[in-house]
Amino acid sequence: MSLPLKTTYAPMEAQPATELPTGADWQYEPKWDGFRCLAFRDGSGVELMSKAAKPLTRYFPELAANLSSLKANVFVLDGEIVIAEDGKLSFDALLMRIHPAASRIQKLSQATPSTFIVFDLLVDEDGESLVKLPLERRRKKLEQFAKKYFHNNESIRLSPVTTDLAVARKWFHMGVALDGVVAKRLDLPYQSGDRTGMRKIKKERTADCVVGGFRYLEGKPLVGSLLLGLYNAEGKLDHVGFTSSIQQKDRPSLTKKLKALIKAPGFTGKAPGGPSRWSTKRSTEWEPLDPRLVVEVGFDHFTGGRFRHGTKFIRWRPEKAPQQCTLEQVKRENQSALNLL
Predict the structure, then answer these.
(1) What amino acid positions are annotated as catalytic residues?
(2) 194 lies in which domain range?
(3) How much is the pLDDT for 45?
(4) How far is residue 41's CA from residue 21's CA, in Å, rounded to a whole number?
(5) Same domain membership, residue 286 and residue 222
(6) Are 164 and 280 members of one domain?
(7) Could you say which of 145, 169, 202 is where a domain stops?
(8) CATH number of the domain enclosing 241
(9) Do both 198 and 235 map to the same domain?
(10) Strand 223-231 versus strand 237-243 pairing type
(11) Same domain, yes or no, for 111 and 215?
(12) Residue 11 forms part of a structural domain
């Protein structure tokens, strides 16, 4: 299968925001808790690509098959892969798919099939690129495409949208059902890799960080805390804090995994500090890691170039490239105005 347009469409990205932008130029969408994905079809085959341009097809064979069953022979769709368990979206079920064994993936694809929630159409069934069209026109074409091709296929769904601020706020306050709300400019074209025309308002303040090192538990050969890093404007990895909220049962296997990645320098920008009157000898000792691992953490405040308190481990993000973990994520106010409504 030949997909010459594959590298042309890097996903459009969102800038973190503390409140929903208002005005007639904005469209609001639910923020789904899944894997961002571009689906490419050219002929009989389908390829799935992650936000970091990593192949996802082998991990979601049932989704590739469902997309291949559509009567449209050519398209590029932008959306989110999700898996529902007991009526709720499960990110853990998605993580289980990133597995080297094809037999394991096949079993999971049958037990917990994925759904593709589509929110943009970049190439239509005639092979025409739509990226230069404003979102308002792309959305209309997507709705026509969905009406024509998505019927009777529950695994491929059209994401709802609204221009009503009250509806968007209702979505935001839907408990754990959604990850927040995304706002997009109706008058702008699809901007690959750009954040100017898209905002994301999340319920919990989170950041995706690179694990640049770790410390052992005191007196034990097990990992005690992960040292977190974010890339600065110069492309160097700054140490910004730590997380120690690791489940005890996970420490042995995680320690083994981390020890295999030990490699200096770990942090190429600001490194963990040296001894001070508040630190102990143990607290200044750490192991540097090859910056491959990405973890999502929850936090309260980020000031002075670091998290002010220990952060909460949320999950690993194997589908995300370390270079995407930048300080831009935390350059915003400390609380969302929506939480005050």
Answers:
(1) 31
(2) 6-202
(3) 87
(4) 34
(5) yes
(6) no
(7) 202
(8) 2.40.50.140
(9) no
(10) antiparallel
(11) no
(12) yes
Q: What string of H, E and C letters represents the secondary structure of the chain?
A: CCCCCHHHCCCCCCEECCCCCCCCCEEEEECCCCEEEEEEEECCCEEEEECCCCECHHHCHHHHHHHHCCCCCEEEEEEEEECEECCEECHHHHHHHCCCCHHHHHHHHHHCCCEEEEEEEEECCCCCECCCCCHHHHHHHHHHHHHHHCCCCCCEEECCCECCHHHHHHHHCCHHHCCEEEEEECCCCCCCCCCCCEEEEECCCEEEEEEEEEEECCCCCCEEEEEEEEECCCCCEEEEEEECCCCHHHHHHHHHHHHCCECCCCCCCCCCCCCCCCCCCHHHCCEEECCCCEEEEECCCEECCEECCCEEEEEECCCCCHHHCEHHHHCCCCCCHHHHC
| Strand ordering across the sheet containing 46-50 | 46-50, 35-42, 74-82, 115-123, 156-158
27 in helix, strand or coil? strand
Helical H segments across the chain, by residue range: 61-68, 91-97, 102-111, 135-149, 165-172, 251-259
Give the separation between CA 249 and CA 12, rounded to whole angstroms.
Answer: 38
> How much of the chain is in helix, strand and coil states, percent to nearest 5?
25, 30, 45
Q: Is 13 left (phi over 0), alpha (psi -120 to 50) or beta?
A: beta
Tell me, what amino acid is at 260?
Answer: A
How far apart CA 309 and CA 288 sit, in angstroms, is: 21
**Are both 121 and 215 inside the same structural domain?**
no
Q: Quick one: 99 and 184 in the same domain? A: yes
339 burial class (0-12, 13-18, 19+ CB within 10 angstroms)? exposed
What interhelical angle do 102-111 and 61-68 show, nearest 10?
60
At 56, which CATH number? 3.30.470.30
Place of tokens 């022979």: 73
Looking at residue 237, its pLDDT comes to 97
| Mean pLDDT, contiguous 10-residue spans, the chain (341 residues) | 56 88 93 91 89 92 95 95 84 88 95 96 94 97 97 90 93 72 95 85 87 94 96 96 94 96 96 54 77 93 80 93 92 36 20
pTM of the model: 0.74
pLDDT of 175 reads 52
With respect to residue 1, please indicate whether it lies within any of the assigned structural domains.
Answer: no
